[in-house]
Amino acid sequence: MSRISWGKAAALCLAAGMMLMPAEAASHGTVHWYATWTASPWDGSGLPPTMFAPSTETFVNQTIRQQITLSRGGSQLRVRFSNEYAKTPLAIGAASIGYSKSGTMVHVPLTFSGAAAIKVFAGAPIVSDPVAAEVPDGAKIEVSLYLPDRTPVATIHLLAMQQSLVSAPGNYVLADAMSGATPFEFREKMSGRSYPSRFALCEVDAAGPTPIRTVVAFGDSITDGMGSTIGTDRRWPDFLSRRIVAAKLNLSVVNQGIGGNQVLAKGMGDSALSRFDRDVVALPGASSVIVMEGINDIGFSGNMIPGMSRPDVIPAEDIIQGYRQLILRAHARGMRVIGATMTPFEGSPAYTKDKEAVRAAANAWIRTSGAFDAVVDFDAVTRDPQNPQKLKAAFNGGDYIHLNDAGYDAMASAIDLSQL
User: Fold this and answer.
1) What is the DSSP string of 195-253?
2) Counts for the chain of helices (H) and strands (E), in that order
3) What are the boundaries of each domain within the chain?
4) Which CATH class is domain 212-419?
5) How do residues 72-99 score in pLDDT, each as one tens digit?
6) What pTM, to 2 d.p., does this model score?
7) Phi and psi for 292 in degrees, rounded to 5?
8) 134-152 pLDDT tens trace
């Protein structure tokens, strides 16, 4: 047996190791994963049927196609679906992700540990295998799910602010167009207003050769974009994402707002305290979070909704305790926390002078406590100088609590990018 020098042996071991490495790592080097789009899941089946009704209550042998806009692009994509609020497994017969290639939308099949079809256990999410897809920053993406079995609407995101379509019977995940497509939305019975909504889709991650840190916008309907123009990506996190891309910073922005969400109480979605680990710290690449929550804790208190909200007006100290817990939990994961002041709401049905005093006290604590790593004063940017309890007329989305496109643009412009 011939003798091999230690140097030659090391070279052989290295070569063998390279052969065992994934082709992606061996030929292209390390890739870095980061969240590039999110929509926080919550329990659509728990919505009061007297208040909201879905356009489709049960999917049967149908395809749902959902439009999204990525914050940052990459060379690979993977998708997370959620069945966390269902009582039965979710059968995925097929799935795809569509993106523009040479000006044409191509639909690429998604697999799950190599399988094209899979059942997602009740109460759990599922993540697809990565697919190769060269997409730019701000790419428009389509995600399609074929649901062969009888599938009740359970895990949703109410305020999609982008279109979702449900097909006539059939599997259309790889088709350019879907036969008999109709919008998937929820209708508010009192006002008759319809909201484009999402089903099961909750996250898209991207990968590329450059490390990208993820900024999480964490909040309620103001973060979710209520009042902005549907289909135009004019929520304040959208404006922030475009600022970051223009500044050539290695950051992505994802939106984890839920309309009606509260810091402390479960209602429209799990409370901020309950969902923080899933919706913020668990995201790949998450490095900072902008917290804008609390106005619904205030607005819904004082028997705003009899039988559903607390009878007393919530004290500011309770909300502040919630903020402190979010800060501690983010810091435990090495994340920066940016506190955002609550915007004005005089003129809305939720407003009273007692509740305004709570908002003012909580905002004062956000500004002066030093508990946050940085502060963005959304209140100062959006209030009417002549009546600081009210939104500027130019920013009022129509209901005196939500903003319009111009208001959300102003909010995003107020954020110091160096603090992220």
Assistant:
1) EE-EESEEEEEEEESS--EEEEEEESHHHHTTTSPTTS--SHHHHHHHHHHHTT-SEEE
2) 10, 28
3) 35-199, 212-419
4) alpha beta
5) 999 999 999 999 999 999 999 999 999 9
6) 0.92
7) -130, 85
8) 999 999 999 999 999 999 9
